[in-house]
Amino acid sequence: MARKRRRLTLRELASKAGISYDTARAVEAGNLQTGLGAYLAMLWAMGLESEIQMFADPERDEEGKQLELTRLPQRVRHSKERFDGEF
User: Fold this and answer.
1) Residue 53 to residue 87: CA distance in whole angstroms
2) Domain of 51?
3) How many structural domains are present in the chain?
4) Superkingdom of this entry's organism (predicted)?
5) pLDDT tens for each residue of 10-32
């Protein structure tokens, strides 16, 4: 859909992304055997870099944040530092 909105043929997008036509076709078909780099290259070629950044944004990982909260200790204690009289 994004490619068509930009009025790009699949060959044009593949060339712009630096991947083969067959790989671009596999990406559009949703072929899971296609490398992640090809998907990212096509997003980049269409100017959708912000979509790429969302993949790795830890703030969007709701499940991970909940797991982290369950593992946090109830209390945190700091040991008192002893002063040895030296500066």
Assistant:
1) 48
2) 2-71
3) 1
4) Bacteria
5) 999 999 999 999 999 999 999 99
pLDDT at 83 exceeding the cut of 70: no
Stated pTM of the model: 0.62
Distance from the Cα of residue 13 to its chain's centroid: 21
Placement of tokens 């969302």 in the chain: 54
CATH classification of the domain holding 34: 1.10.260
**Rounded Cα distance, 44 and 52, in Å:** 8
Domain presence at residue 13: yes
Distances (CA, A) of 71 to 46, 67, 78, 82: 40, 7, 19, 30
87 domain-assigned: no
Give the model confidence (pLDDT) of 67-81 as tens digits: 888 877 777 677 777
**Both tokens assigned to 29:** 């078909």
Residues contacting residue 48 through CB under 8 Å, at least 6 positions apart = 2
